[in-house]
């Protein structure tokens, strides 16, 4: 075992002792009191620190807003101060290994989209400046620390690696439950950061050595990289803020990390030079005493390297490789008119809805394909990834053949994704594989090349082997390579089904690679497709298919996977199988009971049945009744909308106004009507007819504001009146509203804001829209608005609730 | 601290939904109960507070961002000021976002549940602290938050920096001064040697008074 690298301890703690006030910027303090900071550094060097963190934790343009110094100033001064301390120390002491200065990079402190308002690109730019100035000032390495958001940390790592030549270390901060405040797990950090090629990673702050120990063990399971542990001096007293571990005890607890093979140690909040001195002395003493013993342990560590776990992950969820993992296929416009329409309209809510259904049906990973004719694939993919990762927790698979699309998606993805796909052509391989390596993704290789799909299993195996060899040349780990042996339609090329299965078996047995297949394609053109699909799926899994790409909403397919896992031994003790199917029996019983109940209520309802079911908020019922009316030929789709659904909604609206029902009931009714609307929209889309829109309306929550629930209620209600809603989302820039008004030729815009601080943005949006489209009407709503103020900022209407919005829309658009 | 909603919180949750004694069928009652369960599961209440010494009518240097007469009045006669921040965590935020896509009415109810829960968290912190100071024979005022009377909401940034909330409880402030996670509260309390009158929150001090959806329905946002 090599020796351990020692870091320093708390800087903030030390500065507070000599006069730094809470809320005051340590960088500004350091700029005006360099000698104080220098003295702290010197104390740590004397205590035995090999690497000292410069006083640059909050030295970025966002944090320094309102300070007298800028980023460059702060970093320059802090690095110089640290270097001065080292020079002084080295001139007075005999130093074997040169001491190093780390550019300490803390988070910006604002949450990234979609939960916050800071974009990945803005964050990247902020960190980029920090990294460039840090290298210029002479830092020896970059330490990205105390991060709680994986995507934020990724922005910082990319900024460091793309703009400097410095080594990059990353440590994140976890709570007792093994997650950061934003939900990032230790495993996700390990997978994502190892993939990005950082030089060391670990944990700092948040907890004491005892609590962090279990995280270090997890890290060892998931990465081969050197591990950094920089804990607090125990846990703080919530009232006093003082930490409960003494220096001696801190050092004693840190000894536990030696047998684990932790390489880099230091202290965070509450620690001071005395903690570090104790740490250095104790650890060195222990290393010396147990030298022989550790050599044995070292050998054990070597053996463990092959056993590192692998998988893909989102920020909150890791899918471990080893066993069958279902990839959901439904986020794909091919053959799906409704999905295609959603992409054309940038309706990401629909995309998210489909994704949530897949996730709930049990998909482990979701394939994302946004390729539509004439669509801006880069923008669509980037936006879809950003939106999706805000709502679904399973990892994503980026499905595109365009390397530019792949790279943009890789940048903004918070986790380790799969890339789908690359074929065995050198041109493609040389474009895609470097991206896979740089961003640390897994990749699907298609067993074909520019000459097409080989007819034989052997031919496809050759292509797979070629991709494997090329991927290894690029340094992509074997376990991150998946091969797609290609499913051909059995009704067209019957003999090919067997070849595909054979190729899967060869790739699995001879190359030991993971296998994926777009399973559903097998049954195209046949009646009762699900039987063939299911049968092929089972045979393919038997041959070694471990990443089937299927529709997880087809129950029989998911059942087949569940059953397969029992027989393969993956589902230990059949636990998951039992859970799945025990639940099944219960559901069947309940749903049939429900059916009985709703049938009974049908009989009792003599008046307009649709209006009753809308009022009661019964979605399935409303849909069923509407469908019956259309299919019996007694009413057209449009008639159902105008004669039944809208009057029913009007009735509900009046009840709401009279306070006979309250908000959740109003929305339940809107949801019920929505189920019928969706059915009608789908029918019309399927026969290629004109949409049933009564006019287009833009809704948006203004720039800076993220309180969008009110806007979303308005959207749900208005949609059911047959208006086409263009939902621009929340935190919407003024230009985006203006551009959409022009490009979509919209005459009615609804804006919402909940904060007094974001009202100016609302006013600005109104002014700018009116400048380019004076005839466009604007209505506004939100808790802090009043009718008077709405007029004052130039709005045409004020809506106190969703119901008012309907009247306004009727007035403007009819 | 593990504060959760209980079924008797329904009344308060309904109040947030501007409920005004409409007939409730079993379906909607169950919907609220389910929402309570799911918000409880997703929530991770965290809080932090710090006590500062103060002179009558004058704040220490690090708190000069506390502006306006409202907070001065609130802290009249106090020799210490407490800054607190609390949140129920980002998971609830995620839950509500997901639910907005799946079922808007669930989302609206969960949003109300989350509002009630964060208030409950703050009430717990406050009453614990009140018990603590009472041991020393001292008195604690009620909570006063940025946005009340004339204390500007724009101070959230400095407020949260002072408590280092991003690091300690995962509470961040957006560029436009919005607390994220949304269901979070910052508040100020005073500690006094003499008994303080219980400043009940009143509509008169509220910025939303003119257009309050509660008042319009003849109810109020707090008891």
Automatic annotation (TrEMBL), chain A:
<comment type="similarity">
    <text>Belongs to the vitamin-B12 dependent methionine synthase family.</text>
</comment>
<keyword id="KW-0028">Amino-acid biosynthesis</keyword>
<dbReference type="InterPro" id="IPR000489">
    <property type="entry name" value="Pterin-binding_dom"/>
</dbReference>
<dbReference type="InterPro" id="IPR003726">
    <property type="entry name" value="HCY_dom"/>
</dbReference>
<keyword id="KW-0862">Zinc</keyword>
<feature type="binding site">
    <location>
        <position position="269"/>
    </location>
    <ligand>
        <name>Zn(2+)</name>
    </ligand>
</feature>
<dbReference type="GO" id="GO:0046653">
    <property type="term" value="P:tetrahydrofolate metabolic process"/>
</dbReference>
<keyword id="KW-0489">Methyltransferase</keyword>
<dbReference type="InterPro" id="IPR011005">
    <property type="entry name" value="Dihydropteroate_synth-like_sf"/>
</dbReference>
<keyword id="KW-0486">Methionine biosynthesis</keyword>
<feature type="domain" description="Hcy-binding">
    <location>
        <begin position="1"/>
        <end position="283"/>
    </location>
</feature>
<dbReference type="GO" id="GO:0032259">
    <property type="term" value="P:methylation"/>
</dbReference>
<dbReference type="Pfam" id="PF02574">
    <property type="entry name" value="S-methyl_trans"/>
</dbReference>
<keyword id="KW-0808">Transferase</keyword>
<dbReference type="InterPro" id="IPR003759">
    <property type="entry name" value="Cbl-bd_cap"/>
</dbReference>
<keyword id="KW-0846">Cobalamin</keyword>
<keyword id="KW-0949">S-adenosyl-L-methionine</keyword>
<dbReference type="InterPro" id="IPR036589">
    <property type="entry name" value="HCY_dom_sf"/>
</dbReference>
<protein>
    <recommendedName>
        <fullName>Methionine synthase</fullName>
        <ecNumber>2.1.1.13</ecNumber>
    </recommendedName>
</protein>
<dbReference type="GO" id="GO:0005829">
    <property type="term" value="C:cytosol"/>
</dbReference>
<dbReference type="InterPro" id="IPR036594">
    <property type="entry name" value="Meth_synthase_dom"/>
</dbReference>
<comment type="pathway">
    <text>Amino-acid biosynthesis; L-methionine biosynthesis via de novo pathway; L-methionine from L-homocysteine (MetH route): step 1/1.</text>
</comment>
TrEMBL record, chain B:
<protein>
    <submittedName>
        <fullName>Vitamin B12 dependent methionine synthase, activation domain</fullName>
    </submittedName>
</protein>
<feature type="domain" description="AdoMet activation">
    <location>
        <begin position="71"/>
        <end position="191"/>
    </location>
</feature>
<dbReference type="InterPro" id="IPR004223">
    <property type="entry name" value="VitB12-dep_Met_synth_activ_dom"/>
</dbReference>
<dbReference type="InterPro" id="IPR037010">
    <property type="entry name" value="VitB12-dep_Met_synth_activ_sf"/>
</dbReference>
<dbReference type="GO" id="GO:0008705">
    <property type="term" value="F:methionine synthase activity"/>
</dbReference>
<dbReference type="InterPro" id="IPR017342">
    <property type="entry name" value="S-AdoMet-dep_Met_synth_prd"/>
</dbReference>
<dbReference type="Pfam" id="PF02965">
    <property type="entry name" value="Met_synt_B12"/>
</dbReference>
């Amino acid at each position: 075992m090599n020796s351990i690298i020692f870091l320093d301890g708390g800087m903030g703690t030390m500065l507070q002792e000599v006069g730094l006030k809470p809320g005051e910027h340590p960088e500004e303090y350091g700029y005006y009191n360099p000698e104080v900071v220098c003295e702290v550094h010197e104390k740590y060097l004397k205590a035995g620190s090999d690497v000292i963190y410069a006083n640059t934790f909050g030295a970025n343009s966002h944090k320094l807003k309102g300070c007298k110094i800028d980023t460059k100033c702060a970093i320059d001064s802090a690095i110089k101060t640290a270097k001065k301390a080292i020079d002084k120390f080295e001139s007075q002491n005999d130093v074997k290994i040169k001491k190093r200065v780390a550019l300490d990079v803390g988070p910006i402190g604002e949450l990234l989209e979609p939960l916050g308002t800071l974009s990945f690109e803005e964050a990247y730019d902020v960190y980029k400046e920090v990294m460039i100035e840090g290298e210029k000032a002479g830092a020896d390495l970059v330490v990205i620390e105390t991060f709680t958001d994986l995507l934020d940390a990724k922005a910082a790592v990319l900024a460091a690696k793309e703009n400097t030549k410095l080594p990059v270390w990353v440590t994140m901060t976890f709570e007792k439950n093994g997650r950061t405040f934003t939900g990032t797990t230790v495993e996700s950090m390990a997978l994502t950061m190892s993939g990005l090629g950082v030089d060391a990673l670990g944990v700092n702050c948040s907890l004491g050595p005892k609590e962090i120990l279990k995280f270090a063990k997890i890290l060892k399971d998931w990465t081969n990289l050197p591990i950094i542990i920089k804990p607090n001096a125990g846990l703080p007293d919530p009232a006093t803020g003082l930490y409960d571990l003494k220096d001696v005890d801190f050092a004693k607890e840190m000894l536990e990390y030696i047998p684990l093979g932790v390489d880099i140690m230091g202290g965070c909040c509450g620690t001071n030079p005395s903690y570090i001195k104790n740490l250095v002395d104790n650890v060195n003493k222990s290393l010396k005493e147990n030298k022989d013993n550790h050599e044995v342990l070292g050998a054990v560590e070597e053996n463990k390297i092959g056993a590192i776990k692998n998988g893909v992950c989102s920020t909150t969820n890791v899918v471990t490789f080893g066993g069958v993992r279902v990839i959901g296929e439904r986020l794909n416009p091919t053959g799906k008119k409704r999905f295609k329409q959603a992409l054309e309209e940038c309706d990401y809510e629909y995309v998210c809805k489909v994704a949530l259904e897949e996730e709930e049906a049990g998909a482990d990973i979701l394939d994302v394909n946004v390729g539509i004719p004439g669509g801006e694939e880069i923008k669509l993919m980037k936006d879809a990834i950003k939106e999706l990762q805000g709502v679904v927790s399973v990892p994503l698979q980026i499905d595109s053949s365009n390397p530019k699309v792949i790279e943009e998606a890789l940048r903004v993805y918070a986790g380790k994704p799969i890339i789908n796909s690359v074929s065995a052509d050198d041109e493609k391989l040389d474009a895609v594989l470097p991206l896979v390596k740089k961003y640390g993704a897994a990749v699907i290789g298609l067993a074909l090349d520019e000459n097409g799909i080989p007819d034989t299993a052997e031919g496809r195996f050759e292509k797979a082997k070629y991709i494997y060899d090329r991927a290894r040349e690029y340094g992509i780990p074997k376990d991150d390579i998946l091969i797609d042996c290609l499913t051909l339609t059995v009704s067209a090329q019957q003999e090919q089904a067997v070849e595909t299965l054979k190729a899967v078996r060869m790739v699995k047995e001879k190359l030991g690679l993971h296998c994926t297949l777009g399973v559903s394609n097998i049954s195209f053109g046949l009646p009762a497709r699900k039987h063939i699909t299911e049968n092929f799926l089972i045979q393919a899994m038997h041959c070694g298919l471990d990443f089937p790409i299927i529709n997880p909403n087809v129950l029989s397919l998911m059942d087949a996977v569940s059953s397969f896992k029992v027989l393969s031994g993956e589902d230990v003790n059949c636990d998951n199988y039992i859970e799945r199917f025990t639940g099944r029996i219960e559901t069947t019983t309940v749903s049939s009971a429900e059916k009985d109940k709703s049938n009974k209520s049908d009989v009792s309802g003599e008046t307009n049945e649709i209006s009753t079911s809308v009022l009661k908020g019964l979605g399935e019922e409303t849909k069923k009744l509407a469908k019956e009316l259309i299919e019996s030929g007694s009413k057209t789709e449009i008639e159902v909308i105008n004669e039944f659904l809208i009057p029913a909604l009007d009735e509900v609206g009046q009840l709401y106004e009279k306070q006979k029902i309250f908000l959740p009931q109003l929305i339940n009714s809107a949801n019920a009507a929505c189920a019928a609307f969706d059915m009608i929209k789908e029918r019309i889309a399927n026969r290629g007819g004109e949409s049933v829109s009564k006019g287009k309306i833009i809704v948006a929550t203004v720039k800076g504001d993220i309180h969008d629930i009110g806007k979303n209620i308005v959207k749900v209600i208005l949609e059911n009146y047959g208006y086409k809603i263009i939902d621009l989302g929340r935190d919407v820039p003024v230009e985006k509203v203006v551009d959409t008004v022009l490009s979509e030729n919209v005459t009615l815009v609804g804006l919402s804001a909940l904060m007094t601080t974001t009202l100016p943005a609302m006013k600005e949006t109104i002014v700018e829209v009116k400048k380019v489209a004076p005839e466009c009407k604007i209505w506004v709503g939100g808790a802090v608005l009043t009718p008077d103020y709405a007029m004052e900022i130039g709005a045409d209407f004020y809506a106190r609730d969703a119901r008012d919005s309907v009247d306004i829309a009727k007035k403007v658009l009819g | 601290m593990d504060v959760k909603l209980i079924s008797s919180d329904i009344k308060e949750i309904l109040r947030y939904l501007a409920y005004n004694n409409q007939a409730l069928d079993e379906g909607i009652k169950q919907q609220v109960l389910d929402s309570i369960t799911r918000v409880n599961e997703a929530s991770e209440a965290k809080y932090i507070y710090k006590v500062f010494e103060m002179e009558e009518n004058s704040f220490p240097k690090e708190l000069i961002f506390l502006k306006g007469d409202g907070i001065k009045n609130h802290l009249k006669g106090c020799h210490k000021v407490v800054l607190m921040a609390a949140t129920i965590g980002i998971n609830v935020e995620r839950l509500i976002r997901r639910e907005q896509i799946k079922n808007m009415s669930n989302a609206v109810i969960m949003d109300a549940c989350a509002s009630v829960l964060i208030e409950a968290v703050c009430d717990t912190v406050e009453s614990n602290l009140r018990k603590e100071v009472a041991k020393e024979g001292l008195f604690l005022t009620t909570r006063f938050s940025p946005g009340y009377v004339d204390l500007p909401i724009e101070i959230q940034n400095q407020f949260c920096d002072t408590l280092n909330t991003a690091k300690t409880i995962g509470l961040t402030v957006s560029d436009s001064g919005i607390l994220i996670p949304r269901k979070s509260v910052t508040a100020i309390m005073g500690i006094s040697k003499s008994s303080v009158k219980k400043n009940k929150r009143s509509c008169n001090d509220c910025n939303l008074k003119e257009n309050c959806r509660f008042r319009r329905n003849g109810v109020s946002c707090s008891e």
